Amino acid sequence: MTKLSLYEVEDVTDVIEISFDGAAISNPGLAGGGIYINEGNGKEIRRSLPFGVLTSNHEAEFAACVAAMHYALEMGYRTVSFRTDSQLVNEAIEKRHVKNEQFIPYLNEALPLVDRFDLFFCKWIPDKQNKNADALARLAIQKQMRAKQKKEADS
Q1: The CATH number of 13-154 is which of 3.90.950.10, 3.30.420.10, 3.40.50.280, 2.10.110.10?
Q2: pLDDT band at 12; cut points 50, 70, 90
């Protein structure tokens, strides 16, 4: 596969911005992911993903990253700019390495996905710029908590 360079992208509006975030209520605890996509044409896509119990917020961030990549590829996006407020995930993708063994399976799943895009960027952004994805991740946790409470009430 031939990779595009930034200079070969005909129009920067062709770049799809994908923000993702992971959240967990404790370590370990219920976790969720959020994916917010701005297609650049006024169309926004929002996905809230329940992850069940994960060991940490960092693990939820990695899970959200992988889920966002799968979703982007399913949507047929070829030129993407991923945005994350997780420095750990951003550095792992950039360096193609992570020290913590717990996150290696996520990175091993993510890297071949990165290679399937024609052009891929991952950029760290401050929390305040990732509010859409954060709200979706927290919504996923809230939905899981309500389902758990309902199940307990019905028992």
Answers
A1: 3.30.420.10
A2: low
The Cα–Cα gap between 40 and 45 comes to 11
Average pLDDT over residues 94-119: 98
pTM over 0.85: yes
Of 7, 1, 32, the C-alpha closest to 114 is 1
Structure-token match 């399937």, residue found = 116
Helix (H) or strand (E) holding 105: helix 104-114
| 145, 32 contact by CB (below 8 A) | no
Instruction: Report DSSP letters for 39-77, one per residue.
Output: -SSS-EEEEEEEEEEES-HHHHHHHHHHHHHHHHHHTT-
Q: Domain boundaries in the chain? A: 13-154
Contacting residues for 87 by C-beta, under 8 A, at least 6 apart? 124
**Band of pLDDT at residue 8, cut at 50, 70 and 90:** low
Spatial distance between the Cα atoms of 64 and 139, rounded to a whole number of angstroms = 14
pLDDT of residue 13: 57
Reply yes or no on whether the pLDDT at 9 is more than 90. Answer: no
